[in-house]
């Protein structure tokens, strides 16, 4: 989970007259495209590059059922992969970490375990920050077996990358470079 900065809301969102998700297909396409441009085509939660092994979806951070007034609110919409969206389902907790918060930084809340492929709560963070990190890992199932394996695999690919391959081409960018970057 890497911090990203959100651009201005697409104008079509302000014009939606529906009460249920999704907006018209053209507006949905604009919203999804602009969200994924902010994360360079990565899931905002697991940081998997979307496309090859997952589909990209628009995730409501605060669930539609419990927060109907936020269904078309730009700040409640996140670029996510289908795996994170399925793991989270309708679950929500106010302590969940939000990757576009002004004070969110990966290194503040998490550390990488390069032996197991897991991300863990930062052991020197305040207890409340650690609690938020653990909750976020649990709700998005960020340490499920496949993800641990793929993070370690990504590091190998990164170490053997060819000239011209960009960090944004890889999955789990926080696992590849100095964690203070994020
Ligand atoms: Zn994801």
Throw out a few tags for this protein.
alpha+beta; two-stranded antiparallel sheet; two-stranded antiparallel ribbon; binds zinc ion
> With helices defined by DSSP (H or I, 4 residues minimum), what is the helix count?
6
Distance between the termini: 9 Å
Bound compounds, each kind once, are: zinc ion
Helix/strand structural class: alpha+beta
Number of strands: 4
Could you list the spans in which at least 5 consecutive residues all have pLDDT below 50?
none
The percentage helix is: 25-40%
Q: What is the subunit arrangement here?
A: single chain
Strand order of the largest sheet: 1-2
Q: Can you tell me the overall shape? A: globular
- What order do the helices and strands follow? HHEEHHEEHH
Amount of beta strand:
5-15%
**Rg calc:** 16 Å
Averaging pLDDT over every residue, what do you get? 93
* Biggest sheet architecture: 2 strands, antiparallel
Would you mind describing this structure in some detail?
The protein is of the alpha+beta class. The protein is built from 6 helices and 4 strands. It has helices spanning 11-14, 25-38, 82-88, 106-109, 127-139, 145-159, and strands at 56-60, 77-81, 110-112, 119-121. The chain has a two-stranded antiparallel ribbon with strand order 1-2. It is globular. The relative contact order is 0.15. The mean pLDDT is 93. The structure holds zinc ion.
Topology:
Layout: H1 11-14, H2 25-38, E1 56-60, E2 77-81, H3 82-88, H4 106-109, E3 110-112, E4 119-121, H5 127-139, H6 145-159
Antiparallel strand pairs: 1-2, 3-4
The structure holds zinc ion.
């Amino acid at each position: 989970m890497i911090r990203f900065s959100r651009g201005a809301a697409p104008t079509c969102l302000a014009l939606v007259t529906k009460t249920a998700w999704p907006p018209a297909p053209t507006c949905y396409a604009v919203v999804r495209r602009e969200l994924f441009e902010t994360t360079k085509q990565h899931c905002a939660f697991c940081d998997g590059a979307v496309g090859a092994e997952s589909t990209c979806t628009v995730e409501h951070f605060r669930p539609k059922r419990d927060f109907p007034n936020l269904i078309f609110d730009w700040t409640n919409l996140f670029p996510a992969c289908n795996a994170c969206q399925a793991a989270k389902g309708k679950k929500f907790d106010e302590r969940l970490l939000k990757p576009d918060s002004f004070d969110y930084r990966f290194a503040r809340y998490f550390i990488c375990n390069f032996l197991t492929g897991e991300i863990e709560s930062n052991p020197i963070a305040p207890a409340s920050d650690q609690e938020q990190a653990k909750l976020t890992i649990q709700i998005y199932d960020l340490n499920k077996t496949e993800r641990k394996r793929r993070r370690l695999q990504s590091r190998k690919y990164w170490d053997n990358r060819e000239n011209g391959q960009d960090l944004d081409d890889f999955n789990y960018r926080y696992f590849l470079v100095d964690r203070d970057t994020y």
